[in-house]
Amino acid sequence: MNDSNFQHGPCLREYVRHVVQQYLADMATTPPDNMHKLFVDEVEKPLIETVLEHTGGNQSRAAGILGITRSTLRARIKRYGLD
After folding, report:
1. In CATH, what number does 33-83 get?
2. Cβ pair 24, 32 in contact under 8 A
3. What is the mean pLDDT of residues 5-29?
4. Mind listing the pLDDT tens digit for each residue in 44-72?
5. How many Å apart are CA 58 and CA 18, to the nearest integer?
6. Which pLDDT value is given to residue 1?
7. Residue 17 vs residues 12, 27, 44, 49, 54: alpha-carbon distances, Å
8. Residue 33: its pLDDT value, please?
9. Phi, psi (5° rounding) for residue 64?
10. Are 81 and 74 in contact (CB under 8 A)?
11. What residue spans define the domains of the chain?
């Protein structure tokens, strides 16, 4: 799959699949550690940042868009140093 396949809006699932396949290929014979945490952290931080920007920093609206509670959102903001 090349980048031109993404010009017409692939579904997120296919993009993630492509990135994970590339990551594993790049790792070659070295087994990855904590891959789930790595990918969740890499995706969650920019997701939260972008939604907060979209809502003008309104945490209640951002939490609603993200489908999480405000307290969970506040914990993630603290975790990622977004405050």
Report:
1. 1.10.10.60
2. yes
3. 81
4. 999 999 999 999 999 999 999 999 999 99
5. 33
6. 47
7. 9, 15, 17, 23, 26
8. 85
9. -65, -45
10. no
11. 1-32, 33-83
